[in-house]
Amino acid sequence: SGLQATLHKYFGYS
Amino acid sequence: MFEARLANGNIFKMIVESIRELVVDVNIDCSTEELSIQCMDSAHVALVSMSLSQSAFDHFRCDRSLSLGLNLPNVSKIFKMMGRDDTMVLKAEDSADKLMLMFENDKSGTIADFELKLMAIEAEQLGVPDTAYKCSISMPSSEFQRIVRDLQVMGDTCKISCTKEGLKFSATGQIGTGNILMRQNVASEKEEDHVTIDMEEPVELNFALRYLNFFTKATPLSPTVILKMSPGLPIVIEYPIEQLGHVKYYLAPKMEE
């Protein structure tokens, strides 16, 4: 249930 | 030349065991300060961030920063041959194309040494912003492991909500719904049994139990686990390794339908 986001939505590349 | 000697080699073995099912091919980054790993799982939903300070080692020499590309399931197989009380030594030349692992047992005097070919692993480093989390909970790691295991019976998603009532874990599935509410508990004399909940504002987020279950493989590393949450952000689940380092897991939330 529900849509799983990935971390790219929150963390950029350093 | 990189050389590090860890009297309690078992710590490193537990670190490998805590992440090897989530991240397979990783770079262990060696610097003068620490050994560290930052790696996402293949679906880029979870991030492992491990750090073990040079102060954890009896001897630590790192002339030049190195990245040791390793396949963790292979490293795990080698650690099966390390005795519980063995000292572990890691060694690599600066032109690192292989890593030496040695296990020394002081009692029996036996020394086992293994050589692992290193891999060239391209891994982009993620920038994890420093965040002042709205909720921070410290609880017994064994309790968190039990909650995750029990709720997996109920469904595949866990709603974690932190309110002034306490910390609630909920899961709903075909057979019904399960809720586990934990309240702040600093009364028990054993520090390790304490549950402390610092809530600046209520937070409620949904997470895949499959990942939370992977994270609980780090339970042997620390009697307590720290959960940090803010609305709409990935949760951080941190297993401190005494004062020597940590294994942190970041997990992206699941959006309500």
Report what the structure shows:
The complex is a heterodimer of chains A (14) and B (257). Chain A is 0% helix and 29% strand. Chain A is mainly β. The model of chain A has no long low-confidence stretch (mean pLDDT 86). Chain B has 257 residues and is mainly beta. Chain B has helices at residues 10-19, 72-79, 141-152, 209-215, and strands at 2-6, 25-30, 34-40, 46-53, 59-62, 66-71, 87-92, 98-104, 111-117, 126-127, 135-140, 157-163, 166-173, 176-182, 196-199, 203-208, 224-229, 235-241, 245-251, 254-255. In chain B, the strands form three sheets. A nine-stranded antiparallel β-sheet of chain B has the order 6-2-3-4-19-18-17-11-15. Chain B has a five-stranded antiparallel β-sheet with strand order 5-1-7-8-9, covered by helices on one side. In chain B, strands 14-13-12-16 form a four-stranded antiparallel β-sheet. The longest helix of chain B has 12 residues, at 141-152. The A-B interface holds A 1-14 and B 40, 43-47, 124-129, 155-157, 172, 206, 208, 233-234, 250, 252-257.
SSE series of chain A: EE
Strand order of the largest sheet of chain B: 6-2-3-4-19-18-17-11-15
Mean pLDDT of chain B: 95
Estimated structural class of chain A? mainly beta
Q: Spell the H/E element sequence of chain B.
A: EHEEEEEHEEEEEHEEEEEHEEEE
Distance between the ends of chain A: 32 Å
Topology, please?
The complex is a heterodimer of chains A (14) and B (257).
Chain A: E1 3-4, E2 12-13
Chain B: E1 2-6, H1 10-19, E2 25-30, E3 34-40, E4 46-53, E5 59-62, E6 66-71, H2 72-79, E7 87-92, E8 98-104, E9 111-117, E10 126-127, E11 135-140, H3 141-152, E12 157-163, E13 166-173, E14 176-182, E15 196-199, E16 203-208, H4 209-215, E17 224-229, E18 235-241, E19 245-251, E20 254-255
Helix pairs in contact in B: 1-2, 3-4
What is this entry, summarized?
The complex is a heterodimer of chains A (14) and B (257). Helix content of chain A is 0%, strand content 29%. Chain A has 14 residues and is mainly β.
